[in-house]
Amino acid sequence: MDIAKYIGLFLQKNNYCCLQGLGNLEIKRTPVKHNGTELAAGSYFAKLNPVGSLDDAFPNFVATNEQVSIARASNEISDFIKASKSKIADGGSIEIPAIGKYLLKNNQLYFELDPAFSMPTRNIVFPIAEKPNPVLEDTIAPIPEKPYESYSNYNVPKSVNWNIVAFWSVVAIIGGSILIWSVRYFMNQQQNHSSATISEIPVNQNLPSPSSTTDSSIAQAPVIDSAAEPVNASPTSVLDTPEYQFVIKTYSTMAAAHKREKQLNSYGYNVTVMPKDSNTFMVVKAIKVSINDTARMKDSLSRILNPAGITILH
Asked: Are 18 and 53 in contact (CB under 8 A)?
């Protein structure tokens, strides 16, 4: 890797090159002077500072051109500087192609610029203006002027027909009232029908009326022996009607059963929760009904409370 060549290229591009151990080398130019008759061009000279600012610009420049890592480029530059300092200390010099050379004068590091050195000119490229196309004058027809219109014509507010607004407001109020009344009426009818169905307990009236007894039946009545034991012929009282427990539905948790109980009691069904075992809880309604009417009562409750079927707890 030719580090000296890259030092020259970097100097021509940036006018400086900072090398740790060899100092900060700058290429400068004296200003143009006028000797009274003509202008004298300025000359280039090299300025070497022992101490300069360190940056990674030169290692990046070398790594980019050599297609290597910055770390490798930095190591190559460091090796070049060590070898150059050793060579300069022995009385030699380090040539920088087309720029000059490093050497030692009066025990000080010095850079001698090549007399034939010249910085490459940097031409400034100015954009070439395009020739404008000639503008052809076309005959443009005059735009007819609009007749003057009063400003008030554009700001006339539209009148609101308040009769239509009032009509539709009354229609909306009447319609809403009819809808609310219909909903309440339907809910009341449903609740009354459910309560009437459950509270209705049919009574079995199979006793013969006194008018149905005929003389023939009396004549054919058996003769009761007075010596026999008296028979208790008192009729069954309504209070003696048996009470049956109708199981509305069973649940696997106590919370679900109590939730159903609360719901049905709010409708007026008067149900309770009974545990069947540790994992089964029943919602039960107690009803006094004759044994002949249990099937009809069971069907009636099933239609209203549980279409899946209601059982009787024995």
From this structure: yes
Query: Which residue type does 291 have?
Result: I
Residue 290 to residue 312: CA distance in whole angstroms? 13
Sign of CA dihedral 62, 68, 74, 77: negative
**Is residue 46 within 8 Å of residue 59, measured between CB atoms?**
no
Comma-separated ranges of CATH 3.30.70.1070 domains in the chain: 240-313
- Residue 250 makes CB contacts below 8 A (sequence gap 6+) with 276, 280, 281, 282, 283
Q: Check: CB of residue 7 under 8 Å from CB of residue 96.
A: yes
Q: Check the CA dihedral 143-145-146-149 and report its sign.
A: positive
Sheet holding 94-96, edge to edge: 94-96, 100-105, 108-113
Amino acid letter at 183?
Answer: V
pTM: 0.39
Length of the chain in terms of residues written: 314
3-state helix, strand, coil in the chain (%, to 5): 40, 20, 40
Q: Are 236 and 207 in contact (CB under 8 A)?
A: no
Q: Which pLDDT belongs to residue 137?
A: 62
CATH top class, domain 240-313: alpha beta
Please identify every stretch of the chain with a pLDDT value under 50, giving residue numbers as ranges: 200-236
Phi-psi group of 268: left, alpha or beta (phi > 0 → left; psi -120 to 50 → alpha; rest → beta): left
